[in-house]
Design goal:
Two copies of one chain form a homodimer. By secondary structure, the first copy, chain A, is α+β, with helices and mostly antiparallel strands. Chain A has a domain of 164 residues: NADH Oxidase (3-Layer(aba) Sandwich). Chain A is built from 13 helices and five strands. At the A-B interface, helix 1, helix 2, strand 1, helix 5 and helix 6 of A face helix 1, helix 2, strand 1, helix 5 and helix 6 of B.
Chain lengths: 249, 249
């Protein structure tokens, strides 16, 4: 069980083999067993299998091939639409049109997503999260007919692996864990925590490919740039507002 | 493995038994194996065990007894502080002072949290998420000395269970799953999906205790009210800004 978690690696190449309905239902059921705020279950999972829809999603997700190739694309949404409708039909007045409710629903959606990911992997399936979901959330809303009070939060592609990548390196445990209170980092600590990562052969190759001085500059100058971050921030905040989650009165 | 997920129930009463260091390290390690955006690991986990700190956290978390009682309180934070420091020490200019970066780090923190939760449960430990983390995030920042570019996202209490509650009911799978695209809900569908939940004996007792007409009104009028949601939304948005994540230029 823990072994499945420890063995996780993202899979970006998939075989043609379909995921059968019984396995799909079991991993979706696992998703619904995650903790959820006040047992409200304020999330939805949209399972897309049809070629045509996957092609539209592929275009939205920066044309990453795995979106077309994997048999399943699951879009996890923060969803107060169902809950609000239930309240309205019951003479109860929902006040979930605010940022806290959006964030609460985000938490629900992500805990469900990680349950689905682990359940899938325990069946021998491969998964990969798509960070592009938030970048392109407005486009995904259009493609998947997503109504008001619902915002896409993350996506998983799922299928049988057609590659066997090695484990991704991680910072040592004491890089991310603090005891009792937060202990801030000084230069010496940062150097120590990043030393192994910076000395990996693959890091050296990446730096060469990217023509930067070091690994950090690949992130700041190539992968996650100011220009993109500002644009995507504006778009995503606009979408959260458009979907009805920014009423602060 | 899937069975651990399917058997999840939140535990709110804990025995005195401590969690040994080896098990704690293993479940924390499981947290670090979760997917993380671009392998940036932009989250932190603060492990609080000392009585004095747990008492301060207990006060912040609406005085829920389990926060004092459980041996471990883990606070999961969206954290760009470590990553930004690394960039700055490497002559790389980080531009992660925006909402998208905060949200990206939120995703990292929550996937790690759910890995920790499942790993803990697979060791026979009980867990409970604390939704109060976002409501009281400004207070938790003070208690745990949390610096700029870090925001608490959720918390887990962890320990050996001193209760054996039954599984919490969930809506049927087709309440939260959509195929291909989002299918909106009409009154008939809502009635069908909520029927079982509304007819539970415990629902009837809750309605009696709360003096409401129905279950939905318990949420809107008692548990998650407009007044609280608006206040907590304002506080949380202010904190996100204060911690340095709302630069939109």
């Amino acid at each position: 069980m823990i072994q499945t978690i420890l063995d996780h690696r993202s899979i970006r190449k998939y075989s043609d083999k379909k995921v059968n309905k019984q396995i799909l239902d079991e991993i979706l059921l696992a998703g619904t067993k995650a903790s959820t705020t006040g047992n409200m279950q304020v999330y939805s999972i949209i399972v897309s299998e049809h070629k045509k829809i996957k092609e539209q999603l592929w275009a939205a997700h920066f044309k990453q091939d795995m979106v077309k190739q994997a048999p399943l694309v699951l879009t996890f949404c923060a969803d107060f639409n169902r809950f609000n409708k239930w309240c309205n039909y019951r003479n109860a007045k929902p006040a979930y049109d605010n940022f806290l409710s959006f964030y609460t629903a985000t938490i629900d959606a992500l805990l469900a997503a990680q349950n689905v990911a682990i359940a899938a992997e325990s069946h021998g399936l491969g998964i990969c999260y798509l960070g592009t979901t938030t970048y392109m959330a407005d486009k995904i809303v259009e493609i998947l007919n997503i109504p008001n009070n619902v915002v896409p939060v993350t996506s998983l592609v799922i299928g049988y692996p057609d590659e066997n990548p090695k484990l991704t390196d991680r910072l040592p445990l004491d890089a991310v864990v603090h005891y009792e209170k937060y202990t801030d980092y000084d230069e010496q600590k940062i150097n120590k925590l990043y030393q192994t990562k910076e000395q990996l052969q693959e890091t050296k190759e990446l730096i060469k490919e990217n023509g930067t001085e070091n690994l950090a500059q690949i992130f700041t100058d190539k992968r996650y740039t100011k220009k993109d971050n500002v644009l995507f921030s504006q778009n995503f905040l606009n979408l959260i507002k458009k979907q009805g989650f920014m009423n602060l009165e």
